[in-house]
Amino acid sequence: MSAVDEAIVREYFESHGFLVCQRRKYVVQARAKTADEEINLIVFHPQATGAGPVEFELDAASLRQVSRAIVAVKGWHTEIFAPSVLQHQPRIFRFVEPQAVAEAARLVGGEGLLKLLVIPGLPKEKAARAKSIELLRARGVDGVISFRAILAELIAGVETNRNYQKSDLLQVLRLLKNYELLKAPQLELKLRAKSSHR
C-alpha cells in the first residue's frame, strides 16, 4: 500500500471529525508482516451518533455512526474485489485476526470497534457483489469504503478559494479544480447527457 493511498484515506476520516492514529511508520521488508502491521489506521470519533452503521458499504452518512474502527487500506487500483480475488488473497484479512484487533483495542477500547476495509470497489454485477459482501462478512470485515466514494467526496469538498497549506493532498486537489482539470461529478453528468442528445 502506498503512502498516497493512506494519506487519502487519512484525510477522508479527518474530514469527518475522526482522530486518526497510524500504527506503523516503517515498512517491513526482511520478514513477513504480523497481523497488527496489516492495520493501516486506527480511527476514533468522539462524537459518533450510534453504535455502528447498518449498511456494509459505508458512505459519509453512515460513517457518522462509527465511533472507533481499525482500517486496512488496499489500494489495488487495477482490481475489483470480486469473490475470486477474496478467495485467493488471504492476506486481505490479516487485519481482522484476533491479535491485530486486540492490539488496536488496547489503544482505543474494544467496545464497538469495527473492522473496515478501504478498497477500489466491489463488482457491479448483483450476484458477484452479494457474494463478495458475504465473503467479507464471513471473514470478520464489518464494512467497506470505496476509493471512488472517498475521492469524490474529497474533491467535492475542496474549495478553490481556500489555501490548504496544511494538507498537500487537499492543496493538489484545489489546484486541479482551480485549473479546471477536475470537474464536479454533477457537471460531468450534465455534459455527457447533452452530448448524447446530439
Give a description of the structure:
This protein is of the alpha/beta class. Helices cover about 40% and strands about 15% of the residues. It contains eight helices and five strands, in the order H-E-E-H-E-H-H-E-H-E-H-H-H. Strands 1-2-3-4-5 form a five-stranded mixed sheet. Helix 5 (about 125-140) links the parallel strand 4 and strand 5 (about 145). The chain is globular. The relative contact order is 0.15. The mean pLDDT is about 85.
In total, how many beta strands?
Answer: 5
Strand content: 5-15%
Largest sheet: 5 strands, mixed
Lateral arrangement of strands in the main beta sheet: 1-2-3-4-5
Please identify the structural class as seen in this structure.
alpha/beta
Shape: globular
Mean pLDDT: 87
Whole-Å distance between the termini? 43 Å
List keywords for this structure.
198 residues, alpha/beta, five-stranded mixed β-sheet, 8 helices, 41% helix
Give a brief outline of the structure.
41% of the residues lie in helices and 13% in strands. It has helices at residues 3-15, 60-63, 83-88, 98-108, 126-138, 147-157, 168-178, 185-197; strands at residues 19-22, 41-44, 68-73, 113-119, 143-146.
Layout: helices, strands, pairs:
Layout: H1 3-15, E1 19-22, E2 41-44, H2 60-63, E3 68-73, H3 83-88, H4 98-108, E4 113-119, H5 126-138, E5 143-146, H6 147-157, H7 168-178, H8 185-197
Parallel strand pairs: 3-4, 4-5
Antiparallel strand pairs: 1-2, 2-3
Helix pairs in contact: 1-6
